């Protein structure tokens, strides 16, 4: 059961229109004669975890965390750049929606995170289009791109600690925002496109047997769990910002909307020894094992609005910028150091 919950911790983008679960169950050993047909196993294990404990709302929130974090990593801000600018920053995002833990509150699984979190560094580059195209109109446009491939494992995942589980993976986020600055208005209008990619690998083993039921009979199992999770999502955004400057301080509030199109694909497996029906503590007298393999692909089509508030402190050619973004039940904050080239 630990493995099935781990699957849902890392579901990032799931469709609100439904999903298809494909499963295979293989059983070896004498105890297999006491196990009903495959659909009853799936009914006991897969359906409650996927449908009743972790709701679509929680899974959607996790996906929106990753998208909002990628948007905020762009560091485009709301102040015009006359030539070029480089930036290096770090962005985190967290959702407020929680998973419902109806069955395992008194088990080791209570230590797993209940909220979605996304975080990564990012490198940004901004250019004034007048440097490339020429003309007064082109000088009113900035193009900001960002990119940072981020590899992680158990020791460098910020804010999320999963005990007794090997974790590694890769996050590759990038995007571009084209921003228009009407002359002397303080307003700016941005159009962006973003790609958020995640590959996550989890491997865990049970430290002690876990109880489960088959057709009302108490059983125990202990074994190994493996998960490969992949998500690919493309986002398009529109936003409006207003820049208000007092000396070296710029305050930039804004509003935006993002639409997401992508998918998630998950391949998960659990291989475990199972106890005898007559004695839940007996694994040795009639050795038996069960393997469960779950695969699913989710299409994701969704959009959400967000508000933003940026603060920028100028220090000559350098500036320190932070930007806070918030949608419904999700928030993201970025801190970056930037340098302009005149």
Describe this structure in words.
With 342 residues, the protein is mainly β. The chain has a single domain (2-341), classed as Lipocalin, CATH 2.40.128. Helices cover 12% and strands 56% of the residues. It has helices at residues 2-9, 38-53, 56-72, and strands spanning 20-28, 84-95, 117-128, 141-153, 165-180, 187-205, 210-214, 217-242, 244-246, 249-274, 289-315, 318-327, 330-341. A ten-stranded antiparallel barrel has the order 2-3-4-5-6-8-10-11-12-13. The protein is elongated, with a radius of gyration of 24 Å.
Write a brief structural summary.
The chain has helices at residues 2-9, 38-53, 56-72; strands spanning 20-28, 84-95, 117-128, 141-153, 165-180, 187-205, 210-214, 217-242, 244-246, 249-274, 289-315, 318-327, 330-341. It has 342 residues and is mainly β.
Return the average pLDDT rounded to an integer.
Answer: 77
Radius of gyration: 24 Å
What is the number of helices? 3
Structural class: mainly beta
Roughly what percent helix?
10-25%
Judging by the overall fold, what is the CATH architecture? Beta Barrel
- Largest sheet at a glance? 10 strands, antiparallel, barrel
Shape type: elongated
- The name of the CATH topology is Lipocalin
| N-C termini distance | 59 Å
CATH class: Mainly Beta
Helix and strand string, N-terminal first? HEHHEEEEEEEEEEEE
Number of distinct beta strands: 13
Strand content of the residues, in percent? over 45%
Q: What's the number of structural domains? A: 1
Taking strands numbered 1, 2, ... along the chain, how are they ordered across the largest sheet? 2-3-4-5-6-8-10-11-12-13
InterPro entries: Lsa36-like
Organism: Leptospira vanthielii
Protein name: Porin
